[in-house]
Amino acid sequence: GDSVTQMEGPVTLSEEAFLTINCTYTATGYPSLFWYVQYPGEGLQLLLKATKADDKGSNKGFEATYRKETTSFHLEKGSVQVSDSAVYFCALSQTGANSKLTFGKGITLSVRP
Amino acid sequence: DAGVIQSPRHEVTEMGQEVTLRCKPISGHNSLFWYRQTMMRGLELLIYFNNNVPIDDSGMPEDRFSAKMPNASFSTLKIQPSEPRDSAVYFCASSLAGAGKAFFGQGTRLTVV
Question: Which of B43, B101, B103 comes nearest A103 by C-beta?
Answer without folding.
Answer: B43
